[in-house]
Amino acid sequence: RTLNRKDQEHMPVNDALEGVADALATAAMAYQVDEGNGEVGGKDPKDVVLFVVQPHERNIFDQLWIADRMWELHRVSTIRATLKEIADESRLDENGSLWLNGKRVSVAYFRAGYSPDDYPSEKEWEGRARIHTSNVCECPDVALHLAGTKKVQQMLAVPGTLEGLLGEESPHVDALRECFAGLWSLDGLQETEAVEIALANPKQFVLKPQREGGGNNIYGEDILPVLHSRKGLGGYILMQRIFPPLHRTPMLRNGKVREVDAVSELGIYSVFLEKDGQVLVDEGVGHLLRTKAAESDEGGVAAGFAVLDSPLLVEDEAYWASL
Q1: Residues 290, 308: contact at Cβ < 8 Å?
Q2: Quick one: 270 exposed, middle or buried, by C-beta within 10 A (0-12, 13-18, 19+)?
Q3: Is 82:54 a contact under the CB 8 Å cutoff?
């Protein structure tokens, strides 16, 4: 149905675009290089934020919005380059600064490099290594990139891991653990137990490889051939499948509107910036709600499985009864 003014009062503010642009600009302005005669900060006109992108990038428009907002609000300039272009055209100076097209890079913002397909040759690895060996601020750095993998997600569920990170007496341990689905390693000591559990009831599980972007997970009975073959099994984790509540929603596809059973997934945009052990930024800045047909296993928007949606946050039972 069409949203009205009453609905809009219950839609949370979503400043993700400004929040991401502000955080990248803050990182750029915190960038400093000692050239022997004092420090030069990120407001130097020759400093730029580098967007690391894929060749023939399709998902370009939200990237341009961020770049435009950084310029409009902070007068921070940006350039775009692929990993191969960085390998071929960039250089490091004696201070460890990364230079590309006559500009010094203050921040490297990775919008590529998350898939094996992004590394078709050694050139791409060379480009990434040059970024990591420079003094730029990285978004994300290697540690944070690895922290987003499925394997780290699974390791956080191992008993004792949260306690080791947060402390035995931390009240956050139990609260975090309540949010975890069942997670099992498929290499080492857990492999046999995990495979037996999944074979007994495959519809309750999903195999997740170390991939991002949708189209990579294996669901339900489709996991059986992989489990039986054991080939490459250590590259996956096993996760208890989540079955969210269904709701009816109209969807437009190929010019036709149809009402379907759908499920939604809410993600939170957060930004974190640390320099020399000091936290400069740490906050939530917005959200992303994705809705897909319940019959679809995958949920990526850019991959074509889901659509962008908007949440309504309402506690009033009378309001819901009026819908």
Answers
A1: yes
A2: middle
A3: yes
